[in-house]
């Protein structure tokens, strides 16, 4: 199984993935883990990072350009992910294609000022464009399950700011400091989850600190699915 954990920066994805990994290992499940973007291991991801810190001129102005860099990062390991899946591993991913979709759609609607409270971003043209690019042209495997680590944008922003103050190496990039973009991205993720975009989704409320309970809940879902298979 390939399982993607999604959510805005500061939602608590890394903490939850770590807890789920530990829980699955305790249950003797074969686990592999990877996080995106792979800034230190991928040339496209590194260039995207440079752009996010405004060191690549006007590259961040291009929504499709940034989305392509993030997609190419996944393309680099697409075969590895498929092989791990075929070999029986549960592959835990901290961010995946839905992150590219959510941020791209949110950026586009912020730019166009087209989003209203009743509109679903699932039907935005850029959603299908990213999916076609990653799952179609670049051969990135479709996940079997997606976990939305859901918090209000304001809570995620506070956590990211606190993290930045405690660790200078975790400074926020231009996406993370844009409050309107973060709010729209939360909306986009919720739209994707509600529509079960490309796979089943499971939503966890990460507004509190009960990570272990959430990890056990997700591990139960995974192990039950493995038993059915």
Automatic annotation (TrEMBL):
It catalyses: dTMP + ATP = dTDP + ADP. Its EC number is 2.7.4.9. Keywords: ATP-binding, Kinase, Nucleotide biosynthesis, Nucleotide-binding, Transferase. One of its GO terms (cellular component) is cytosol. Residues 5-209 form the Thymidylate kinase-like domain. InterPro entries: P-loop_NTPase, Thymidylate_kin-like_dom, Thymidylate_kin_CS, Thymidylate_kinase. One of its GO terms (biological process) is dUDP biosynthetic process. It comes from the Bacteria. Pfam families: Thymidylate_kin. It is an enzyme of class 2 (transferase). GO terms for molecular function: ATP binding; dTMP kinase activity. Belongs to the thymidylate kinase family. HAMAP family: Thymidylate_kinase (MF_00165). Phosphorylation of dTMP to form dTDP in both de novo and salvage pathways of dTTP synthesis. This is Thymidylate kinase. It comes from Corynebacterium urogenitale. The gene is tmk.
